[in-house]
Amino acid sequence: MYYLSQGIIFGLYAAIMPGPMQAFIISQIFKIGWRRALKLAFIPLFSDGPIMLTLLLILSQLPTWFISALRIAGGFYILYLAWDAYHTAKINDNPITSPGQLNGNQNSFFNGVAMNLLNPNVYIFWSTIGVPNILAGWQQSALHGLAFLIGMYGTMIPSVMVWIAAFGRVSLLKAETRKVIATLIAVLLLLIAINMVMSGVSNLTNGTRI
Known about the structure:
The protein has one domain (2-206). It has helices at residues 2-16, 20-32, 34-37, 43-59, 64-90, 109-117, 120-138, 142-170, 175-206. The protein has nine helices and no strands.
């Protein structure tokens, strides 16, 4: 349940927090309509897969203390994400980049996948948060390891599809609704960050497995 809940939280964060992918999808809504843009919610499945598998092969061969150190680094990175979510919650206007600023050639599913592969935040997330959590869960059971992925993508993809439909229907989600969701996510991310840092420090101190 722990790894599943973490995946759900990060899936929700990835779905609604402003970034290059959200801006790209919005640009496609204007070009092809929200119904055809729904398929773009599946972009992370195709872009994250190669990154995640590569990092899994690399990190699974490293000593336990290194994974624990990564969990600590991931905890501090989550603190940044929490601050970013809190900052977003305070913004009254829509913080997502204007779609007019995007390259006009980015008009297909494959362009979105390529853009995500070139996004450094994706590599930072999977190397410091995603893969360490999967490996930690795998130490308990395969189901625990997969629970993080199930929770994340099972939340992120439907959530992205919902806001695509909402954006297509009413142009933007209501500011107050966005504020409440972003504030809640900031608090949840803060709790996860504290837990990950304490867990990593404890593992390094005791010399135990992750």
